[in-house]
Specification:
The chain has about 250 residues and is an alpha+beta fold. The chain has one domain (about 65-250): VSR Endonuclease (Endonuclease, Chain A), CATH 3.40.960. It is about 50% helix and about 10% strand. The chain contains eight helices and six strands, in the order αββαααβββαβααα. The chain has helices at about 15-25, 55-90, 100-110, 120-130, 170-185, 195-200, 205-220, 230-245, and strands at about 45, 50-55, 135-140, 145-150, 155-160, 190-195. The strands form two sheets. It has a four-stranded mixed β-sheet with strand order 3-4-5-6. It has a two-stranded antiparallel sheet with strand order 1-2. Strand 3 (about 135-140) and strand 4 form a beta hairpin. Helix 2 packs across helix 4 and helix 3 (about 100-110) crosses helix 4. The longest helix is centred in the first third of the chain and has 36 residues, at about 55-90. The chain is extended, with a radius of gyration of 29 Å.
């Protein structure tokens, strides 16, 4: 072990205490608190493989500090989310004051832990729906998946898709099939692009209902399947080929 030169002002006091511990009559102490430099018996390892030690008092202080940092992080994220949501309304020349009750309801629900939003467009859409007196549920568990927005009265699941959605079409299509099977007949998953939320928010509710009806019609026309995914196309082709083979027998 490296032993510091005594009296050198450039030497960290913690390193001097560590050296003193090794040179003491009681024998070397392997672990020393990173905060106060006192010898400790309790220690832990971090991901990098380096050994980090804290005494009982410093460990309690560190735990409280991490708790405060997590609170500040969540508070900062909350304020940023609300601010970006307000911008979506302002960019479309929508008076936020007219939505004050919906904003207040969503924020109170979010603070109470009843609602959670992954993005500002998702929050903006929920505020628009609540302002129209539409019953809304957010982040609903369904078969191991998290559903962005659920409209129980219309049997509709609304997914707000960002720019990366184009790389996950097959994955989302498979998920939509499983969600439809889980929720049952009459339920449909409607995908809404973020660009549509940012540009057509006042008319988005009507568009969702029309899209829900269109998807339901496509499903009925294809024997209960949606052919927009590879899996759906394969299943539809298989069914239609079978129908063609037995058509002369019917």
């Amino acid at each position: 072990m490296w032993i510091p030169e005594r009296g050198n002002k450039n030497i960290d006091p913690k390193r001097e205490r560590l050296a003193d511990a090794y040179l003491s009559k009681t024998g070397p102490v392997k672990h020393i608190c990173w905060e106060c430099g006192n010898p400790v018996t309790d220690w832990q390892w971090v991901r990098s493989g380096r050994q980090r030690d804290w005494c009982t008092e410093c460990k309690a202080k560190r735990k409280e500090l991490l708790k405060q940092l997590e609170y500040w992080r969540k508070a900062s994220k909350r304020e940023t989310l609300i601010d970006n949501t307000v911008k979506i309304f302002e960019q479309q020349a929508m008076d936020v004051y007219d939505y004050r009750e919906a904003f207040q309801a969503v924020i109170e629900s979010m603070d109470a832990g009843k609602s959670r939003f992954d993005s500002a467009p998702e929050m903006a859409l929920v505020i628009e729906l609540i302002n129209l007196r539409v019953r809304v549920k957010t982040q609903v568990d369904c078969g191991g998946y998290k559903l962005d927005i659920v409209l129980p009265e219309h049997r509709a699941v609304v997914e707000v898709d960002g720019p990366t959605h184009r790389h996950m079409i097959d994955h989302d299509a498979t998920r939509d099939i499983l969600v439809h099977e889980k929720l049952g007949e009459g339920w449909e998953v409607v995908h809404v692009k973020v660009s549509r939320v940012k540009g057509e928010l006042p008319t988005l509710y009507e568009w969702i209902l029309d899209e829900h009806s269109r998807i339901a019609e496509v499903r009925r026309a294809n024997g209960g399947l949606l052919p927009y995914s590879r899996r759906g196309k394969s299943e539809v082709n298989e069914v239609m080929n079978y129908v063609r083979k037995i058509k002369h027998l019917i």
